[in-house]
Amino acid sequence: MTDAVVIVLREVLEAMLLICMLMATSTAMGYRFRWMLGGLALGVGGATLYALGLEQISMAFEGFGQEYVNSALLVGIAVLLATHNFLAVFQLRNPSVMLAYRTLMLTFVVMVAMAITREGAEIYLYAYSYGVLAGNITAVFSGGVIGLGIGLSVGTFFYYGLRSLARRPRLIVCCGVSLVLGASMMGQASVYLSQADVLPYQEPLWDSSGLFEESSLMGELLRATLGYEAQPTLNQVSLYLSSVIVSILAMLAAWRLHRLPEPARGGE
Amino acid sequence: MASIRVFLTLTLIAIIVLVSFLSSLRGYRQSMVEAETLFDMQLQEHAKLLSLITINRGQVVEGLLLPRQADAQLSAQSLIAYQVFNEEGALLLRSVAAPNTPMSPREVGYSDRNFNGYRWRVLVVWDQLDGHWVMVAQRLDVRYELAESVILEAVVPTVLGVPLAALLIWFIVGYGLRPIRQLAKEVRSREVSDLSPVRLDNVPRELTPLTVSTNDLLRRLQSSFNREKRFAADAAHELRTPISILKVQVHNLLAELEAPNATAEELRQGIDAMGHLVEQILVLNRTAPDQYMVQFVPVDLYALAQEVISSEYEQILEREQHFDLEGGPGLVAGDATALRSLMLNLIGNASKYSPQGAHIRMRVRTDRKETILQVEDSGPGIPESYRERVFDRFYRLDGDRHASGVSGSGLGLAIVKHIVEMHGGHIRLSQSRELGGLCVTILFKPLAQEKPEGKKA
User: Which domain holds residue B411?
Assistant: First the structure.
C-alpha cells in the first residue's frame, strides 16, 4: 500500500502544482479558469489512450517509443512553462493590457492536458499491473486513494495560498514555481533521453542518497516539487540549468518589451 | 475568493483528508511493524511446539512424523515450513513445504532466507534438552499479505468515509452560511424605493455589525432622498404662484400696449417656458420610480388618448397638423394621472418638433402578450446614435440651438421613461416607416397578466 501511496502522490502532486499554479496565474490575469475542464478532459483522454496503446508506443522507435513520448511531453510542458513566464512578466509590466484570451487559455489547456496524460498514464499502468494483474486491488486502491487525497489536499492549500497573495506577488510566485517545474521537467526528460541513447551515458556527478533516499517519501516529494535526483548526471544538471536560464531570459525579454520606445507622436 | 462556501468546503475536506490519511498511513506502517512482531512470536510458538514433540531420538526420519492432516493444516494456515535436525545435522523431521537441506545455517535467531523460489523468515532454535536444531520458516510475502489484509480492514473505511464527510461538510457549511444568503436575498429583493431597515431573525454575531451599518446607511440614504425630494418639489411648487402672477402681469402688459411689442412677446414666451419647466419638474418628481408608490387601477389607453388629444387639439390645429388616432381599447393596470402626463408629453413633442402641416398618428392595440401605444410623426426624427441619450434629464438634441427652434425643458422624454418604468413597460425609439419621422413604441403588460393585488413601483 505504501508504494501505491508514494507513486500516486508523486504523480498527483506534480500535476497539481502545475494546475494550481496555472489557475492562480489565470485569476491574477483577470480570467476565470473554465479552460481547466477542457484540459482535464483532454488529459484523461490522452492518459487512457497512452496507457492503452503503451505496447505499440513501446515498440516504436526501435523499442524506445515510450522514452521518446515521455521526453517529448516533458520538453513540451517545459517550453510552455517558459512561455507562461514570458506572458506573466509581460502582464506584470503591462497590467492594463488584457492578453489574448484564446491564445493564453490554449497554452494552459495544452499544458494541463500534457501533464495529465503523462502522470495519468503512469498511475493507470501502476494500478493495472500491481493492482489488477497482481491481485492487490484493495491495497493499490486504498494506497492510490490516499495518495490522490493527500496530493489534492496539498494542491488545494497551495492554490488558496497563491490566491491569498495580491495580484503582483501572486504572478511573481507563479513565475518562480513555473521556473522550478520547467527545470524539473527538463531534468526528467534528460533521463528518458539517456535511456533512449539520444544523450550519452554518464557517471553521476554526486550521490546525495545519504541525505534523501530517492525512494523515500521525502525523496519522492522533493522529486515531484524540485525535480530532485540523488545521483544526477552532467546531462541532467545541464538541461535543468539551461531550462532555468531560458525561462529567466524569457522573463527578461518580456520585461524589456515594455521599455521599447513608443512611436514618436505627431506634431500638434 | 470566489465563494466562501467552496473555499470552506474544499479547505475543510483537505484538512480532514490530510489528517485522516496521514494518520492512516502512519497507523498502517506501525501496524505492519507490530504484525511482523506477532508473526515472529508465532514462529517461536511453533518452534516450542516442535521441541516438545517426542521423537525417536537419533533416528533419521524420511518424510513426516506429524500426522499429515495436522501438518497440512499448519502449512495451509500460514505456509509454515519446519525442519528438525539432530546434533550431528541429520534431518529428523520436516514439513512438506520444507526442503531436505537446512533452511538456514545453524545459528540461533531470526534471519531472512531464499528457498523454494520464495523469500522466507526463518527462526532457528537449539533445543538443549533433546539436542535438536529446530528450524521454523514462514513465507515473507504471505506474512505481508496477511498483515496487510488485516490492517486494510481498518484503513478502507477511512478512505471510503471521506466522500461522505465531504458531502456533510458541503451541506453544513451551506447551512452555516444561510444567514448571509438570507441577508443578500433580503437586500436584493427590495423595491428600489424601499429604504426601510433590514430585519433578520436571529442574526449571527458575525453579521450584526454588517446589518447595523447597512441599516445606518439606508437610514441616511432615506433622509437624503427625502431632503432632495422635498427641496425639488417645494421649490417647484413655490415657484408656481409667482410664475402665475407674472403670467397675469405680462398678459395685462400686452393688453395695455397699443402696438405689438417684440420684447414683451419674448417676455411672455420666457415666462411660459419657465412655467412649463416648473410643471415638468413637478411631474418628474411625482413619477420618479424610486419615489412613486401608488395603487394601480385599470386604465383604457384608447379612451385616455381621446381625452388627451381633445385637450391638445388646439395646439395641433394652430400648426395645421393632421392627427389620427387608430386602434381600439387597450386596458392596462396603471395610474391615470401619470399615463395622461406620458401622452401629453408624447403628443406635445410630436406636435412641437414636427413642422407645420405635419402628420401625427397615435395607435393603441392589444395582442396576447402586450398592450402597445405608438406615436409616430412625419417630423425630423432622432438620429439613432442619440436615441439613448434623449431620455437623460435636461438633455436636448443640439442643446438650446435645437434645429426646430422650439423651446423645451429637456425633461419630456425623461418623464415618459419614468412613467413607462413605473408601469413595468418598455419604450423603444425608431424611425417611422410610414411617416418618416420619430416612432415611439411603448409596450405595457395587458391587464389580464397583472396580479389581482395592486403593484408598487
Answer: 297-444
Residue B67 lies in a domain: yes
B302 and B209 in a single domain? The answer is: no
| Position A163 in a domain | yes
Residue of B nearest to A134 (CA): B145
**By the CB < 8 Å criterion, does A2 face chain B?**
yes
pTM of the model: 0.64
Those residues of chain B that have pLDDT short of 50 are 54, 56-65, 400-401, 449-457
Q: Which residue has the cell 483532454?
A: A42
B14/A contact by beta carbon, under 8 A: yes
Q: What are the chain B neighbours of A24 within 8 Å (beta carbons)?
A: none
Are B148 and B225 in the same domain?
A: no
Nearest to B11 among A145, A150, A160 (CB): A160
Task: Tell whether B206 is covered by a domain.
Answer: yes
Highest mean pLDDT among A19-28, A56-65, A94-103, A204-213: A19-28
Average pLDDT over every residue of A103-113: 87
| DSSP codes of every residue in B377-442 | ESS----GGGTTGGGSTT--TTTTS-TT-----S-HHHHHHHHHHHTT-EEEEEE-TTTSSEEEEE
pLDDT tens digits, one per residue of A171-204: 899 999 999 999 998 988 988 888 888 888 778 8
Q: Which helix (H) or strand (E) holds B115?
A: strand B109-115
The ipTM (two decimal places) reads 0.80
B180 found inside a domain: no
C-alpha cell, B122: 526463518
